[in-house]
Design brief:
Layout (H helix, E strand, L loop, with lengths): L1 E4 L4 H10 L3 E4 L1 E4 L5 E4 L8 E5 L5 H15 L5 E6 L18 H9 L5 E5 L14 E4 L2 H11 L3 E4 L5 H11 L3 E3 L2 E3 L5 E3 L10 E9 L3 H12 L4 E9 L5 H4 L5 E5 L7 E3 L2 H11 L1
Parallel strand pairs: 1-2, 1-5, 5-6, 6-7, 7-8, 9-10, 9-13, 13-14, 14-15, 15-16
Antiparallel strand pairs: 3-4, 11-12
Length: about 280
């Protein structure tokens, strides 16, 4: 196998190639003066089983991925598995108002072009996987967070809302610690209101986990609740760290922020490469 990396996922691709093991090819990517992209896969992949690794955030990385798929199609590999560490548009999985695009479906159909299989990590809404007509697998990066939480001595795992409860349950089970979740109401894109409830957090180090952190508002609301109830420490954990709109300033409320390398950032302290390698084996 050969691992081909786009510019957004070099860190993860390097670790994946090391674990498999496989040869790593970092694609050449440059932008022209008008912003148009040029990509090139310089090493030969004819007859090879290829894992193309490229996250879709921000938007220009998604376009880069489409171009890389086209470049590989002409290079005659025996099989291409597209690894999308963060599947952007995963939250736009249905039509909320007449005239809207079902964006995740549109992206899925374009990702199928030139792909024999697809692997992604913690897609926000699992129903997105039904849009694929090729073998497609959604794996979880929560074990990567659990590895770090174990090192930090986390004693309880909390989800900031009901949608993330499954993630808290998974991580809690892995580190053999109790878990719970809060309820929230989103008032707008920037504001959430979290319902306060009594939690057994006094004197404990608590990890608050979610799949995606964008602005950080939901996580901070949860952190305030456990801090006010006497926790001895609060850690934030997410698989996909976007950290937009002042998130880094908000997240200073935490003792540590742990994100994976599905989206590269200063907080990417753990890798989902072991889970991706296992997923590739399942896809065959």
């Amino acid at each position: 196998m050969k691992v081909v990396s786009g510019s957004a996922s070099v860190r993860l691709a390097k670790e994946l190639a090391r674990i498999l093991p496989a040869d790593l090819i970092v694609a050449e990517v440059r932008a022209f003066a008008d912003g148009e992209l040029h990509v090139r896969v310089s090493d030969g992949v004819a007859g090879e089983d290829v894992a193309l690794v490229q996250t879709t955030y921000p938007n220009d990385k998604l376009l880069e991925l489409f171009l890389l798929q086209d470049a590989l199609a002409d290079a005659a590999p025996s099989r291409v598995t597209v690894v999308v560490p963060y599947f952007g548009y995963g939250r736009q999985d249905k039509r909320f108002q007449p005239g809207e695009a079902i964006s995740s479906r549109a992206i899925a159909k374009r990702l199928e072009i030139g792909a024999d299989a697809l692997l992604t990590v913690d897609v926000h809404n699992g129903g997105v996987m039904d849009y694929f007509d090729i073998p497609a697998l959604d794996i979880t990066g929560m074990p990567a967070l659990a590895r770090r939480f174990g090192e930090l001595g986390v004693e309880m795992v909390l989800a900031p809302d009901e949608n993330a409860a499954r993630h808290a349950e998974t991580v809690g089970g892995l580190i053999k610690m109790p878990w719970d979740y809060l309820k929230k109401e989103r008032l707008d894109s920037w504001t959430v209101e979290t319902e306060v409830k009594a939690l057994p957090v006094k004197g404990r180090c608590v990890a608050i986990v979610d799949d995606v952190v964008s602005t950080g508002g939901t996580m901070v609301s949860a952190a305030r609740i456990v801090q006010e109830q006497g926790s001895r420490g609060v850690v934030a954990g997410c698989v996909h760290g976007l950290f937009v709109g002042g998130a880094k300033e908000r997240l200073q409320a935490f003792d540590e922020v742990v994100a994976t390398d599905t989206v590269s950032s200063d907080y990417s302290v753990v890798s989902v490469a072991p889970e991706v390698a296992q997923g590739l084996q399942k896809l065959g």
